[in-house]
Specification:
The chain has 325 residues and is an alpha+beta fold. Helices cover 23% and strands 28% of the residues. It has two domains: 2-77, SH3 type barrels, CATH 2.30.30.230; 87-323, Fumarylacetoacetate hydrolase, domain 2, CATH 3.90.850.10. The chain has helices at 27-30, 41-47, 49-65, 94-110, 115-124, 132-136, 202-209, 266-273, and strands at 2-8, 11-18, 23-26, 69-71, 76-77, 87-90, 140-141, 148-149, 155-156, 164-165, 168-174, 190-197, 200-201, 225-233, 244-249, 252-258, 284-286, 307-312, 316-323. Strands 1, 2, 3, 4, 5, 6, 7, 8, 11, 12, 14 and 17 form a twelve-stranded mixed sheet that branches. The model has no long low-confidence stretch (mean pLDDT 95).
Length: 325
Amino acid sequence: MRLVTFVSSGHQRIGAMTDGDTRIVDFLAARDNAGAAFNGMQALIEAGPAALDRAREIAAEAQRSRRGMVETKSVKLLSPLPAPPQLRDFLCFEKHLIQAFTQILRIRAASSADPEKALRELEKQGAFKPPQVWYDRPSFYKPSRFAVCGTDQDVAWPAYSKTIDYELEFACVIGTAGRDIPRDKARAHIFGYTIFNDLSARDEQTLEMASNLGPGKGKDFDNSNPVGPCITTADEIPDPYTLEMIVRVNGEERGRGNSREMHWKYEDCIAYVSRDETIHPGELFCSGTVGNGSGLETGRYVEPGETVELEVEKIGVLRNRIVRR
């Protein structure tokens, strides 16, 4: 199933997309006394496998009876998890890291008297390579869960930044709690998958990261964490490491990659984070940027008024316009 949170007639509901995503099964409208598990996406996830099986039953019934069906274009889609209990954003793609380092160092070298010489010296120092610690453990930071928004929601350009960038990522949604989870058991804790755009104020991020703490305001501003358009349940994606990923700006393709390029897999991330720490239903574990998935790697950033589309196979398209206030 492709699960969504939406607003219809002023009420926030959850449902399943159907009919080529042109309609949504509103679970509460499709079945009387559906139960508290259908009051919101977090409630559905926490209710466990039995509630998900009931959701499938309701969706199948609605397909036959057409009861509880709404036109997708008549409602407003929100983030499938409007207020996730936790966000963790990892750096799983080596290619992105190498290309980002290369671009940053080229910019730094360009300001010197002899850019080519400066580049050679940086290369000798091994500056273009990810640090060894990246290969030792899956690194992550915690974005603001209060900055989440959904597809087709505008993002206001923060007044303190001149350089806004997109980051093409996808994420797994934790379905069941656990602690000290072995890597070979980790996939069983995944409820489903969604798309994540880790929008970044690059100029602010560059300044604050020099403190060896952060990122902070380089990442955190209202609607800076778009998520959506849906959560595709794990049974629909038996192998999450074969997914084509594409980013477009104003309809122009800016980059693409594939989830098979993940150096660190979600199993690694779940096993690492859950060491002496309980992970909880509804948490998002984000992949980090796929190679070619950011403007930082190409030097082409977002301009005011442009629309960023992130597409991940079997999940859909997450679309947001970046606007000046």
